[in-house]
């Protein structure tokens, strides 16, 4: 009869702690048993993500047609705030589901309420905040409030991780109070002040998934579930990027530039899959702060290149602005993926030479884009250089370790 090895058995039942993650059970053949499966992504979570498909599309519209082809600092600021809001709203609910959700009836009801508030949030996204600022503040307050109620129910119940729920309640209560104060200020006539307060609160709320970086809650996370959820949201962002290049594929007189830009997205996605999906160890116990932070940058990078493709197609925006968006996208995207090395499987540790080569290719790509920003083909070629070379480097690293007889293995599967 096969015997089992228990790895990372840190649960409330066994050790009296607050982290009830269950046991990773591996039999003598190194095959994980059913108990090791952990939290899985539910269909309702995928349904929830559909709201953010719409929200991301609304975000792109904010930057799509600048008046007179001039991209102002106010436009960029509004775009950045709404992008942070989308990421914050999605992570706020995802963090609860990952750590505390047991999928009882109240979870479904409040998640549905959160979805309706997310629709209102997406609808209120406008280049002129004065048009729908009230609806925006109400939607944010509803989304935050629904998560607060979920944490409160969990804390008052018998579920695991009550300490984490208590800390999350305290932080979210402060965030909610600030939103309500901003709403009161708006009705009192201090609309400008209320907008700045909301913007600052959104930025602070972005830090919520990182607040347990140290201490007893640092590893209270279902890491495989969290990574899978972030991968799915990355696909949503890539979906909007794909839509942004469809304008190049005209029925009459199609532009070859569209094929190159389409290839850029494929290369970016391949680079992401190689570094995060293939090279990272998803199943071992891990502090998630860096992986979350890297995905923040990845989402911003994909959104930035989506805007750049839109500007490239329209041709009205100054080419240097388009090149800047593409350069920022490349820098953030490549830095984020190179920074995931903490999570690599055994045998795939990235050395300083690998990182230096990745940064060098990134610098070359950015230099080409900025030096020849007046030519759209030069912009796309520069992007292919920066992203493509890093993809090739990553594949060589992954395949090379395998060819050398050092098959990458997950760290959780190496404990004797």
Folded structure, characterized:
With 416 residues, the protein is mainly alpha-helical. The protein has 3 domains: 4-37, no CATH class; 43-210, no CATH class; 223-413. The protein is 67% helix and 2% strand. The radius of gyration is 23 Å and the shape is globular. Mean pLDDT is 81; it is low at 1-18, 20-37 and 412-416.
Mind sketching the topology for me?
Blueprint (H helix, E strand, L loop, with lengths): L3 E4 L4 H4 L8 E4 L15 H22 L8 H27 L5 H19 L5 H28 L5 H26 L3 H15 L17 H22 L11 H23 L10 H26 L4 H20 L13 H20 L4 H28 L13
Antiparallel strand pairs: 1-2
Helix pairs in contact: 2-3, 2-4, 2-8, 3-5, 3-7, 4-5, 5-6, 6-7, 8-9, 8-10, 9-13, 10-11, 11-12, 11-13, 12-13
Provide the β-strand percentage band.
under 5%
**Structure summary, number of beta strands:** 2
User: Judging from the principal axes of the Cα atoms, what is the shape?
Assistant: globular
- Helices, by number, come to 13
**SS content category:** mainly alpha
Query: What fraction, in percent, of the residue positions are helical?
Result: 55-70%
Contiguous low-pLDDT stretches (5 residues minimum) are 1-18, 20-37, 412-416
Largest sheet, described in full?
A: 2 strands, antiparallel
Radius of gyration: 23 Å
- How far apart the termini lie comes to 18 Å
**Total count of domains:** 3
Question: Which strands sit side by side, in order, in the main sheet?
Answer: 1-2
**Average of pLDDT:** 81
Reading the helices and strands in chain order gives: EHEHHHHHHHHHHHH
